[in-house]
Amino acid sequence: MKRSSFALKTLILVLSNIITGTLSFVFSIILSRKIGSKGMGLYQLIMPIYSLFLCLTGGGITVSISKIAAEKTATGNLKELYKTIKAVCVFEIIWSILVTTILFISCKAISKNLLYDERTMYGIIAFCPALIIISISSVYKGAYYGLQRVIEPAIIDIIEKIVRIIVICILLSTLNNVNLEIKVAAAFITLSCGEIISLILFIICFKGYVRKNPAHGKSDNDFQLIFNVLRLSFPLALNGMLGTMFIAVIAILIPRRLQASGFIYEEALSLFGKLEGMALTIAFYPSIVINSLCVLLVPSISEAVTFKREQSVTRKMNMSLKITSLIAFSSAAIFFSIPLRIGYFFYNDETVGQLLKMLSIGLPLVYIEITLCALLNGIGKQGALLLNSIIIAIFELIALYVLIGIPNINIKGYAIDFILYPLIGIILNLREIKKSLNYNFDFTGIIVFPFLCSVLLCFVIKYVFINISNTPLLIFISYLTYGIIYFSVNKMQNHSKL
Fold first, then answer.
1. Within a domain: residue 259?
2. Which residues are within 8 A (CB) of 414 and not within 5 positions of it... i.e. 6 or more apart?
3. Burial zone of 75 (CB within 10 Å; 0-12 exposed, 13-18 middle, 19+ buried)
4. Per-residue DSSP letters for 176-221?
5. What burial letters (b/e) apply to 330-352, b meaning 16+ CB within 10 Å?
6. Does some domain include residue 188?
7. What is the pLDDT of residues 287-323, one digit of tens each?
8. Are residue 377 and residue 452 in the same domain, yes or no?
9. What's the mean pLDDT when you consider all of the chain?
């Protein structure tokens, strides 16, 4: 019963990730059509600052509360759990208001001296309320995960994304003739609109849970309870801040280096918006399935490592990497074969398609590197993962700074880095895994065989599917064809071995 209940909850989480990921993708399409590539450039400049301050106000709180909720539920001390949630909510309200006030006062200096574009100031002001709301929501979300109640957060996340889509359509239709910076600010206002609905629903659902499960047990004082949560959340928040600082540096770096290579600022901003806000959004959309796969496999691998079942660990690792390769190489083949059609279909822009074609070459390596990071986390090597991530980040910064600034390379430098940094990541992460386990990386099954199938799919799309004019139908048939090619040849190969 417990096993089937866990499988059901995992399935709900996976489906929720796919739905929310799809809704986020739809949001980016609507936003790009309403504010254009320059607007997307401004939006992508502001987004890392938002993420950075989100880590500062509530980073690690969801995971920490989840852990504490699981412990208190197991011991039956619901009184301390409820008191912890209340105390941390009060702390988050005070702390996030303080941080947001400082941000509000310094937003002009940040936009001028850090982002080098004063138009970003309105966007920074617009996301300030969301910082406070999300910080409180993260407490309730963590409580739900700790109580192993995944249905409510899954439904609420979906509702929040739908609200954002509805609000952005209404706002930008109403503000059709205003300045670009106001439109970008309106996009950030939708964050607060979606999150306030999310918070209200979390509070209503949680109150219902409290009524059904009355408080009992003993409890520490409020200050001790808050300290217990912060002690757990601080390292997670610090890691999150380091990651978002790196993303912020990248966001600032790319437009400046494009200027150095010969673009005027507005052209550089537009190209940056097409890359980060459009082409990469398409490129990473299939990774929703891979992220869901990690949710399924990482706990299973952790369990196998705990019980020293190395053969099981190797089998599960290779299985997850093969599934990743299937998705990655099939997507890369499609993006490489019909990039202009895809770029025009989703964003009405063929330049997005050209960028997507460049990214498609390194896409399988990036997807495999993402999965290896998850697997390294699964075997309990968080320290090694952090060190590898820092090495990769330093390399990526240097590579982007040098390559994008060269006039004859410019934006292609990002595509070159898109091949190099995951390659380094794969080598470093595999080395760490092999230090801990007797693991054999199935190079033929994970790289060679999926790559050959993707080459064959490119020829099929170009010469067999040439007359299919419907782009979504062509994408669907192409994925289906890759699956047929892969499993047919794989079956023939297995028979020949017998």
1. no
2. 254, 275, 358, 359, 400, 403, 404
3. exposed
4. TTS-HHHHHHHHHHHHHHHHHHHHHHHHHHHHHHHHHS---S----
5. bbbbbbbbbbeebbbbbbebebb
6. yes
7. 887 776 665 666 566 666 666 676 777 777 888 888 8
8. yes
9. 85
Tell me, yes or no, whether 182 and 301 share the same domain.
no
Q: Are residues 198 and 319 in the same domain?
A: no
Same domain flag for 298 and 202: no
Q: Is the residue at 265 inside a domain? A: no
Short-list 267, 270, 242, 272, CA closest to 254 = 272
User: Letter for the amino acid at 305?
Assistant: V
**How many domains are there within the chain?**
2
Same domain, 389 and 245: no
Q: Which residue segment(s) compose the domain that 403 sits in? A: 286-498
Q: Chain centroid to CA 84: how far?
A: 29
| pLDDT at site 475 | 94
Same domain, 156 and 229: yes
Decide: helix, strand or coil at residue 100. helix
Q: For residues 282 and 32, is the Cβ–Cβ distance under 8 A?
A: no
| Residue reference for tokens 């950075």 | 52
Q: To which residue do tokens 């099954």 refer?
A: 445
Number of neighbouring beta carbons within 10 Å of residue 467:
6
